Amino acid sequence: MSKDAKHTGLAVEVSMEQMSAFFKVLSDKTRLSILMELLDASLCVMHISERVGMSQSAISHQLAILRRADLVRVKRNGKTLVYSISDEHVRLMLDMAMLHINEEGKQ
Amino acid sequence: MSKDAKHTGLAVEVSMEQMSAFFKVLSDKTRLSILMELLDASLCVMHISERVGMSQSAISHQLAILRRADLVRVKRNGKTLVYSISDEHVRLMLDMAMLHINEEGKQ
DNA sequence: TCCTCATATGAATGATTGTTCATATGAATA
DNA sequence: TATTCATATGAACAATCATTCATATGAGGA
Questions:
Q1: Are A97 and B19 within 8 A, CB to CB?
Q2: Is residue B97 within 8 Å of residue A71, measured between CB atoms?
Q3: Which residue on chain B is closest to A100 by alpha carbon?
Q4: Which one of A78, A82, B44, B70 is least enclosed by Cβ atoms within 10 Å?
Q5: Which domains does chain A have, with CATH numbers?
Q6: Å: B61 CA to D9 C1'
Q7: For chain A, what is the mean pLDDT?
């Protein structure tokens, strides 16, 4: 079962399954914190771990999920793996969410 | 702990808690199906239930969650309660997600 | 080549959440 | 006002998922 974006005229075919999976990735505080840090700068796992304030293991598990969802990319730099945001949709997505939350309850 | 959208220059202050809660609402297949139906037209609970193919109770539970998140609005019409999308962010959000999913794996 | 250090991964557990079933609520209309 | 019908709600259960702990992996530098 799938639905296209008839409203915007976009010729996009996407399943409900894929969409919920995508939003599920964005629905975790730890993963959001990671993304927020990566919006500012590319970082290695250790640094993300420090900034977000969670264990290396926890961060690594979550980065794997972000990778699978194509929200972050990895690049090796010497001994460390440097993670970065993979595309602009993420940024827009987060801003859109912030806008919505900010307007909740108004009017 | 909160973060503002320094990247877009938006003066929005939102907590990680609020953001994850928002995306969590969008991360369920049933709720997404409901929203998709409501993008086409305002509907009463019974009709949503029929179209989505789930029990009245299940739909009602999910509508309550969508209401609390300010994603849908209710209006009484005689004996029935008519639900509709509450604002344009939802539409944009869904389109953005579809775009991202559609571009996954490319390049 | 061997060791080391950064990162990944597997299993286990506690917490969260969606659905069902049963029932309550309450506005509309007869 | 009494009844009915649409919708909401509570409790219970199964399933999903994030974190921890322990350990594996494997590229880099000596």
A1: yes
A2: no
A3: B89
A4: A78
A5: 9-102 (1.10.10.10)
A6: 8
A7: 86
Distance between the alpha carbon (CA) of B76 and the C1' atom of D3, Å: 20
In this predicted model, what pLDDT tens digit does every residue of A56-92 receive, in sequence order?
Answer: 999 999 999 999 999 999 999 999 999 999 988 888 8
- Note the pLDDT of residue B43: 98
**What is the SS3 string spanning A57-90?**
HHHHHHHHHHHHCCCEEEEEECCEEEEEECCHHH
pLDDT tens string B83-94: 999 978 888 888
Task: Give the pLDDT band of residue A105 (cuts 50, 70, 90).
Answer: low
- Please indicate whether, in this complex, the C-beta atoms of A96 and B93 are within 8 angstroms of each other: yes
d(CA A50, CA A104): 33
A101/B18 Cβ within 8 A: yes
For B38-60, the pLDDT digits (tens) are 999 999 999 999 999 999 999 99
Estimate in Å the CA B82 to C1' D3 gap, whole number: 23
What are the beta bridge partners of residue B72? Answer: B85
Encoded amino acid at A43, one letter:
L
Angle at CA B4, nearest 5°, toward A105 and B5?
A: 100
- Looking at beta carbons, which residues of chain B come within 8 Å of A96? 89, 92-93, 96
* Cα B43 to Cα B61: distance, rounded to the nearest angstrom: 16
pTM, entire model: 0.87
How would you class B106 by CB atoms within 10 Å of its CB: exposed for 0-12, middle for 13-18, buried for 19 or more?
Answer: exposed
